[in-house]
Amino acid sequence: MRPLRLLLLADSHIGFDSAAQPRVKRRRRGPDFLANLSAALEPALRGDVDLVVHGGDYFHRPGVPDAVVRDGYRPLLAVADAGIPVFVVPGNHERSAMPLPLLLVHPQVHVFDRPRAFSLDLAGVRVQMVGFPCVRNVAEWGLARLFADVRIDHAAQVRVLCMHQAFCGAQVGAQDYTFRFGADVVPSHELPTGFAAVLSGHIHRGQVLREDLTGAPLPCPVIYPGSIERTSYAERDETKGYAILQIEPGASGGVVRDVQLVPLPTRPMIAVPVNVRGLSGDALAARLRQRFAEVPSDAIVRLEVRGTPEPEARGVLTAAQLRDLAPETMNVDMPRGRTMVGMHAID
Question: N or C: at which end does the chain have fewer Cβ atoms within 10 angstroms?
Fold first, then answer.
């Protein structure tokens, strides 16, 4: 009996920087997310895996335009049309419910719209997929309470738990912030036995947790594939991608024998500091052109303005002017802060 091959992706955030009727002509990042979603699903279309799990935050926000929803579902439905079972966990960005759910009515698409289990036979292996949509205050609910009405198939040779939550010990951000305790954090001691793995979205850094904070082994690994693209500057140094798992069937729900975190192409995200103190409008424009020329032309630039601009130079720091100064292939964002000009360059 060969291992079960599973493709895990999460946090695709389709609809990020997308507009149904854009008012401004500029490069938008939405196509980057859609392209990486399609790239992550290519192994499934090639028949290299037995099933696909999306760990939540498929979309960036509730209420994304219907056209974006349809375009976003198309790669997933192509996998289902190829005969590969697909399991989807609604995330917090979808407010725990998938938009236009009728578009997902397909015999190979299974949505954890409530705590539930799906059983199926794959490659001669009895598989049970158990999961639930994102739950706020999950620690107060408790996993045992969430699954009180879910029947566990003890005959299944592979059992997997799917969620979209922060798990104790997961790390995020440039400072390696570690989730420890809190209402929205799943405690280590709540992890049930009898599962090959916990598959989750929500944490944008790809990682595999095998021990709790004391160093004691977890009953099974907690696997985050990470997001498929960078959604914030805190992720500037993180590799983005998806995961391929090999799960060996067994009497206690199976064992994960291999996890590969597969990278996806991402555009560079770079901070560009500019001191504007004492510069005229023309001098500031010239300096910005120079600074933009020093980074890759397709970069996602975080413009960090130092100092207070002269009144005549403030117009250079508008969104329209920055678009004229930067290459058309570049995205420029200017964050707010007490030491920076309070102006956002993306509209």
Answer: N
The residue assigned the tokens 């407010």 is 95
Percent above pLDDT 70 for the chain: 96
Q: Please, what is the angle between helix 30-40 and helix 66-81, to 10°?
A: 10
CATH superfamily of 4-263: Metallo-dependent phosphatases (3.60.21.10)
* In the chain, domain spans: 4-263, 269-333
201 bridge partner residues: 164
Describe the strand order of the beta sheet including 269-275 as a list of residue ranges: 269-275, 300-306, 331-333
Q: Exposure string (b/e) for 74-99, b if CB count within 10 Å is 16 or more?
A: ebbbebbeeebbbbbbbbbbbebebb
By the 10 Å C-beta count (0-12 exposed, 13-18 middle, 19+ buried), 338 is classed as exposed
Is it the case that residue 339 has pLDDT exceeding 50? Answer: no
Of the CA atoms within 13 Å of residue 33, those in its CB half-sphere come to 25
Q: What is the pLDDT of residues 63-82, one digit of tens each?
A: 899 999 999 999 999 999 99
- Copy the structure tokens of residue 197: 């793995």
Distance CA 275, CA 284 (A): 9
The first and second tokens of residue 200, run together, are 């989750």
Measured between its terminal Cα atoms, the distance across the chain in Å is: 54
pLDDT score recorded for residue 123: 84
Question: What pTM did the predictor assign?
Answer: 0.92
